[in-house]
Specification:
This protein is mainly beta. The chain has one domain (42-341): Neuraminidase, CATH 2.120.10. The protein has one helix and 24 strands. It has a four-stranded antiparallel sheet with strand order 1-24-23-22, with no helix packed on it. The chain has a four-stranded antiparallel sheet with strand order 2-3-4-5, with no helix packed on it. Strand 10 (168-171) and strand 11 form a beta hairpin. The chain is globular, with a radius of gyration of 22 Å.
């Protein structure tokens, strides 16, 4: 059909616009944005050693993260008040600014305080190093922190006491501590430890208590009676092997999420999330949700830690020590749409 010149120009513009939209959609799909993944935000550069970040979201919505920039120290803290789009400059975490540490975990307590646990290196004798757990509390969204409280060292200094996962707050006076050398209930008011449930030590794995009150252990077990008895979950994501590296967390809608890192070598190639939608009874290993895949080996062990920012968004901190990536090694944060887990 022969259009007048003015209509031909309009038609061409519309065709060009449509082509631009199609190209943008194609680019978005290629970049992985169709899965609801944001562009990673760099929190720090020049990292190495036991970086192992921790992350929590306060009841006011503030995101607080900690990690080590280098082996042992400095131990840094950073905060975001806009859902992870921007972060404060990483600063020394005051309670550990002069000691050698191995990174730990962050937990938001029911009363709104933040609990940060970490691991202190100490030398019980010449040529021997061990670790014990210490913690501090913040009542102002991570701006200031209380004096450290030390947990008991293992009687055998060759056995390290280590924490890497958020605690489970059973009550204000009963914290379930998933330590490497013991699984115990700790009373923060008295400082006393008691055996948890059936007394089994689960090792350095995460625990989750679901909205239904069910306890899920990263050892691949499930309890509906407060840990007195446990039933195996099969199949289950491999959270137990290198349990300090992986994560497991619960969403407010009752779903559970665990990390799975696929591939050989130190860091693997891809970070997947595996989801349970039935109170931890079964896990959808047949449909892993891809979180991180650059088509190359991941530098370091990534150690992802995820929180629920809101009903529609998850936020994850992780690290990658590949010096060939743009900007070099670093600690990163990115968001994912919860709908991607469906």
């Amino acid at each position: 059909m022969n259009y007048p010149p003015s209509l031909r120009i309009g038609h061409a513009r519309r065709s060009f616009s449509a082509a631009c939209v199609a190209a943008a959609l194609l680019c978005t799909a290629v970049m992985g944005q169709d899965t609801g993944l944001s562009t990673p935000v760099r929190l720090e550069s020049g990292v190495s050693g036991h970086i192992h970040p921790a992350l929590c979201r306060s009841t006011k919505g503030t995101l607080v993260a900690t990690f080590c920039k280098k082996e042992f120290m400095p131990h840094l803290i950073t905060r975001s008040t806009d859902g992870g789009r921007t972060w404060s400059s990483p600063a020394l975490f005051p309670p550990t600014d002069k000691i050698a540490i191995y990174p730990g975990s962050l937990t938001t307590l029911a009363d709104g305080r933040l609990l940060h646990c970490w691991n202190v290196w100490f030398a019980p004798e010449e040529k021997l190093k061990s670790r014990y757990v210490a913690f501090s509390l913040s009542s102002d969204d991570g701006l200031t922190w209380s004096a450290p409280v030390n947990l008991a060292k293992n009687a055998d200094p060759k056995i390290h006491s280590v924490i890497r996962h958020p605690i489970v707050e059973l009550s204000p006076t009963a914290w379930l501590l998933p330590l490497a050398d013991r699984t115990v209930v700790y009373d923060p008011q008295t400082g006393k430890e008691t055996a948890f449930g059936d007394g089994t030590s689960h090792g350095l794995v995460p625990f989750v208590r679901t909205p239904a009150g069910t306890l899920i252990s990263g050892k691949g077990q499930r309890s509906t009676d407060g840990g007195q008895t446990w039933q195996p979950i099969k199949p289950f994501p491999d959270v137990f092997t290198q349990g300090w590296r992986h994560e497991m967390m619960g969403l407010n809608n009752g779903w559970l999420l665990a990390s799975q890192i696929v591939g050989p070598g130190v860091g693997g190639d891809v970070i997947h999330f595996i989801v349970s939608r039935d109170d931890g009874q079964t896990w959808d290993l047949a449909h892993p949700v891809e979180f991180y895949n650059l088509g190359r080996p991941i530098g370091g062990r990534a150690c992802p830690r995820t929180v629920e920012i809101d009903a529609e968004t998850l936020g994850t901190i992780y690290y990658d020590t590949d010096e060939k990536q743009a900007g070099g090694s670093g600690v990163f944060f990115r968001t994912m749409k919860t709908a991607s887990l469906k």
